[in-house]
Amino acid sequence: MKSTTIGSACKTALAVAITGSLFAGTTAQAQLAGHNVILVHGFQQEDLANPPANLQEVKSAGEDYWRTFWLSRSEARIDWGSNGRVEGGIAQQAYQQLRQISQQGLCNNWCLVVSHSTGDLVTRYLLENQARWLQSEGLPPLKILAALDYSGAGGGTELANLAMSLAYNDSWYNWPLRAAVEAFTGIEPEPGKLGVVNDLQTNAARNLAVSPNNIPRLRFVAGGSSYGGITKPFIEGTDDGVVPTHSACGATSAAGIDSCSNSISLAGKVTSQNGPDALYYNHYPILMNEGASHSGVLGSETGNISVPVVNNTTLGGLRVDFASRTYNRRAWWQWWGSGDQYIEVPGSDQTDMSSLVYTTLNN
């Protein structure tokens, strides 16, 4: 194996520090890069089976959602019930919390939003409307520096398309498809009981709050399995078992793609890829990780290599500077030549994606 390391010595030291942070036992700080963090969680299928009775139940579930890593590193959350619709009950619940954040002045020195899954779509809707909502009550809008979107479902998922079709006409669907849909929704789909799944249909999601704005969306993309892999055959292109890569990357089209890059695979191999034709304005795929699952990106999984895509840049005042290295690797059957070229964040398999991102962006 021929290996070549690129980047400065300080980047290499940072990669070592990330690995060591697993064992350091340091006290968590409720800021990132000197800014307060607001969390926006994703779809919670339990809300469809047992709709929350009030906002307190919604907030209790939202708190549990983030316990693995981000809860102790945030100052506020925007929690919402998945039995609602983005432009309906979800917006109403979110506004109550936006108002409180504004009144407390938590974003006077700018905030960062961290979202996961459907939280990406909810965040997009809030970013488009929050200034108007708050100013109508004489409150200052939240000053948002950037959003960090893990496994973002802002472009929808084909699983939602199938769930809605199954709800209205279940006569012809085979067992594997039905099992995949029910693994995703947690219920047997019925009209009027799918809540935010309506908004996660690919066409619906891509027509909701799509006006460009100046807030950068930093994308962190996974490609592992969820639900034992039974959902993968029904999602276009590569996916993380729930969200397709075209959505997580921020691609302008719902067509299936294999990577956020036209020249780097999710595994880091430097080769021609079926990547996006274009990305939404101000959307930046930062890291890809072929092995991480949909929920594993939030701090529960290690052992997976992260691959830098957009790197060594400043986005919305946030410095993005992941350590990186390129190397050559020969497959077992390659007896000559230097093999294939790969790029990775060194040491990223020794930590989880959330820790990697937090440690890097917090420097």
Write the layout of secondary structure elements.
Layout: E1 3-4, H1 9-24, E2 31-32, E3 35-40, H2 46-49, H3 55-65, E4 76-78, H4 86-104, E5 111-116, H5 119-135, E6 144-150, H6 158-168, H7 175-185, H8 202-205, E7 217-222, H9 245-249, E8 283-289, E9 307-308, E10 313-315, E11 318-320, E12 325-329, E13 340-344, H10 353-361
Helix pairs in contact: 1-10, 4-5, 6-7
Can you give a write-up of this model?
The structure is a single chain. The N terminus is likely disordered. The strands form three sheets. Strands 2, 3, 4, 5, 6, 7, 8 and 9 form an eight-stranded mixed beta sheet that branches. A three-stranded antiparallel beta sheet has the order 1-12-13, with no helix packed on it. It has 363 residues and is an alpha/beta fold. The chain contains ten helices and 13 strands.
